[in-house]
Amino acid sequence: MVYHMLRNKKGQALLLVLILSTVIFLIGSAAVTLSTAVRRNAIRDIWQKKAYYIADAGVEMALADLRQRFIHPDPGFEELSIHNAPYADGVIDEVTINDIDTQNEIGSLMKITSKGRYREAYKTLEVGVLVTTMADVFNGLSILPETPADIDTDVVGNFTLLPAGQSKKPQMIVNGDLTFGSNADINAVVFASGEITDKHNRINSKDKYPNYSHIPPFPKLPSMNWFRDNATQCFSGGITIDEDSNGRRASQEQDDFLDITSLEANGIYIVEGDVSISGTYFVPATIVATGDISVEDLQRNDRDNGLLLTLIALGDVSVKGNSDIDAVIVACGSLCGSGNKELFGSIVTQKLDKNKISGKTEIRTDPDLVERSLKEFFQRVKDTSAIPDNPYPKVTIKSWQGG
Question: pTM for the full model?
Answer without folding.
Answer: 0.84
